[in-house]
Design a protein that fits this description.
By secondary structure, the chain is an alpha+beta fold. Helices cover 17% and strands 23% of the residues. The strands form 5 sheets. The chain has a 6-stranded antiparallel beta sheet with strand order 3-12-8-15-7-4, covered by helices on one side. Strands 11-10-13 form a 3-stranded antiparallel beta sheet, with no helix packed on it. A two-stranded antiparallel sheet has the order 1-2. Helix 2 runs parallel beside helix 4. The structure holds 2-oxoglutaric acid (AKG) and fe (ii) ion. InterPro entries: OGFOD3 (IPR039210), Oxoglu/Fe-dep_dioxygenase_dom (IPR005123), Pro_4_hyd_alph (IPR006620), Pro_4_hyd_alph_FE2OG_OXY (IPR044862).
Length: 289
């Protein structure tokens, strides 16, 4: 069974699965003093915005071209041809490496393994809690408008990059859920949906995904060991090494069966931002509630 199982609680919580570090109590979710450098938010800003200075972030379209491509028969589809490239595709960018000193070992103020930005679902050992409901107004101490603006900006750039790379229309793609941060470490899986290392197909796992994108927020071999992303192709696997700032995207069907290697040490952070061709499955960008 893949990372893929889509159990009811995840449906309800609107989130996915990853290895969970059991959280001692809900109070651990309360805002804690942030490290001067670091934390999940700082990590996100650095990877998405370039050393925390948004202005220095190069537009996705100016990044180096795809380093890996594959054409393969796509699944039969009824979606608009403007949204579908007609064949399974994949692409990953190089990352531009820039990091502030002292940030690599910082850990997030939130001890979560999965945080779905759309619903607020946060994995908590064997359960999910709703972060937005839990914090109510105080959520603004956790996230700011600026964080969500940054998300929108990155989402838009990734959307445009996918459209450009696959020769489809960006306006025919819709953000879909879940859209989530993940944290993976070597802690034992708490539930079967924490077992991220199984081969799976995102379209099956998440239902609405037509295009999956992953923005990595930490570096393979430097911040964590194991944890490479593996496309399981007939005859030969192809591996992507996460690097902070690297974006990988691919069509979400059976043509892109994949898995993530077990993380042996350290902590791996990523954010998943995915798109659907079906407007009925589209969601708005996450907003502060
Ligand atoms: O984090 C990754 O590299 C991939 C995660 C994944 O396969 C998924 O969320 O479905
Ligand atoms: Fe996946």
């Amino acid at each position: 069974r893949g990372a893929a199982a889509a159990p009811e609680e995840r449906q309800r919580a609107g989130s996915g699965r990853r290895p969970g570090r059991a959280l001692p109590s809900p109070t651990s979710l309360l805002p804690s003093p942030r490290p001067a450098h670091g934390g999940t938010r700082a990590r996100w800003r650095r990877a998405a915005g370039g050393c925390g200075r948004r202005a220095s972030f190069p537009p996705l379209s100016s990044r180096p071209p795809a380093v890996s491509w594959r054409g393969a028969p796509g699944a039969l589809r009824t979606a608009s041809p403007r949204c579908w490239p007609g064949a399974g595709r994949r692409c990953s960018t190089s990352s531009w490496r820039c990091r502030a000193p002292g940030t690599t070992t910082a850990t997030g103020g939130l001890k979560a393994s999965i945080l779905d930005l759309h619903s607020g679902a946060l994995s908590l050992g064997k359960q999910f809690v709703n972060l937005y409901r839990y914090f109510g107004d105080k959520i603004q101490g956790i996230f700011t408008e600026e964080d969500f603006a940054l998300y929108r900006d990155v989402r838009q750039r990734i959307q445009q990059k996918i459209a450009q790379a696959f020769g489809i229309s960006s306006s025919s793609m819709y953000l879909t859920k879940p859209t989530f941060f993940s944290r993976i470490n070597s802690t034992e899986a708490k539930t079967t949906h924490d077992e991220y290392w199984h081969p799976h197909i995102d379209k099956v796992t998440y239902g609405s995904f037509d295009y999956t994108s992953l923005l990595y927020l930490s570096d393979y071999a430097e911040d964590f060991g194991g944890g490479r992303f593996v496309f399981m192709d007939a005859g030969s696997n192809k591996t992507i090494e996460p690097q902070a700032g690297r974006v990988s995207f691919f069509t979400s069907g059976s043509e892109n069966l994949h898995r993530v290697e077990k993380v042996h040490w350290g902590t791996r952070y990523a954010i998943t931002i995915s798109f659907t061709c079906n407007p009925d499955h589209g969601i708005g960008d996450p907003v502060l509630m």
